[in-house]
């Protein structure tokens, strides 16, 4: 038997409960894992509260991230006792996820846990950190170097944004953090490496086709009007790595930044990123993140506290990363 957070739905209303389940209830997979930690992401919050159509079937165990120890494996790539990490692949949406003490998963979805990371550190990184690292790598691949100027990070108080601020700072970039909670989180963002903090309200006016060139590049976690504004302000030959839609999935922009300034819009996906790219990003992030990030950017909760946390994260009331100890 194992403990799990289980979501059900009736009359389009999603409910959650802590249940004791038998291992036979787990879905099919190659690898059985004793889960040590999961994490609470915005997508998890939408699933648990029912505010978003995340889960494709019920009952469902949410949790798009997990780390733990292999208990059994029918795949030769993984052996009992090995530490692994899982992010994405529809886990917690179409396949039972990390908010349980056990999980059965496909071997193709797993990455060996880097030696430098503990399980709780891996979940303090999680999907958010992996996405942030992929964004940073996308900007580097586009030729955006620290010498070219400031890098903007939108939604900087969130999981992806806070890791992106930290990583970019560690790589020598001058980072400008955008947040709607500058009075509350400004000093914290500076402690993570932001050189300055800008209030989100400064980006709320509708974007003109082109505006003053301000940023060598950007990591955008918001989308919609915010992304349009950022694109209009990026330097000639600059780039924006876009990975989120907290502000909406529309993009009210024009072709002007692209054809007159050569701006590059780089779409970043972490859910189905191939193994090699995923493994490289995990290794790189394990080398770059300072110890101060794990101390300052994260907090731990129990499985019983998850429903309240889900409500808070969907209301924009969570700062940094939230780790769930199983």
TrEMBL record:
The keyword Transferase does not apply. CDD domains: MDR_yhdh. Its EC number is 1.3.1.84. InterPro entries: Acrylyl-CoA_reductase_AcuI, ADH-like_C, ADH-like_N, ER, GroES-like_sf, NAD(P)-bd_dom_sf, Zn-ADH-like_protein. SUPFAM superfamilies: GroES-like, NAD(P)-binding Rossmann-fold domains. It comes from the Bacteria. GO terms for molecular function: acryloyl-CoA reductase (NADPH) activity. SMART domains: PKS_ER. Residues 16-324 form the Enoyl reductase (ER) domain. The keyword NAD does not apply. Keywords: Oxidoreductase. This is Putative acrylyl-CoA reductase AcuI. The gene is acuI.
């Amino acid at each position: 038997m194992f403990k799990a957070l289980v979501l059900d739905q009736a009359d389009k209303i999603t409910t959650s409960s802590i249940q004791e389940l038998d291992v036979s209830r787990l879905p099919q997979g190659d690898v059985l894992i004793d889960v040590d930690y999961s994490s609470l992401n915005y997508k998890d919050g939408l699933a648990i509260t029912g505010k978003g159509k995340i889960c494709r079937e019920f009952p469902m165990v949410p949790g798009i991230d997990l780390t733990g120890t292999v208990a059994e494996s029918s795949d030769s790539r993984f052996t009992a006792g090995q530490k692994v990490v899982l992010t994405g692949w529809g886990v917690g949406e179409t396949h039972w996820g990390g908010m349980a003490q056990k999980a059965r998963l496909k071997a193709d979805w797993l990455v060996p846990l880097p030696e430098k990371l503990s399980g709780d550190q891996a979940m303090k990184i999680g999907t958010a950190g992996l996405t942030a690292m992929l964004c940073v790598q996308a900007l580097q691949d586009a030729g955006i170097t620290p010498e070219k100027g400031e890098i903007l990070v939108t939604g900087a108080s969130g999981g992806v944004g806070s890791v992106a601020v930290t990583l970019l700072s560690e790589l020598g970039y001058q980072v400008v953090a955008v947040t709607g909670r500058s009075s509350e989180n400004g000093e914290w963002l500076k402690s993570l490496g932001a050189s300055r903090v800008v209030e989100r309200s400064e980006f709320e006016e509708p974007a003109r086709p082109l505006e003053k060139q301000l940023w060598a590049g950007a990591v955008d976690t918001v989308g919609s009007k915010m992304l349009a504004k950022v694109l209009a302000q990026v330097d000639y030959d600059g780039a924006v790595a876009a990975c989120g839609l907290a502000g909406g999935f529309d993009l009210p922009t024009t072709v002007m930044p692209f054809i007159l300034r050569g701006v590059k819009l780089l779409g970043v996906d972490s859910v189905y990123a191939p193994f090699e790219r995923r493994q490289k990003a995990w290794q790189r992030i394990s080398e770059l993140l300072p110890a101060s990030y794990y101390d300052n950017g994260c907090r731990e909760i129990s499985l019983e506290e998850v429903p309240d946390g889900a409500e808070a994260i969907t209301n924009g009331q969570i700062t940094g990363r939230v780790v769930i100890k199983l």
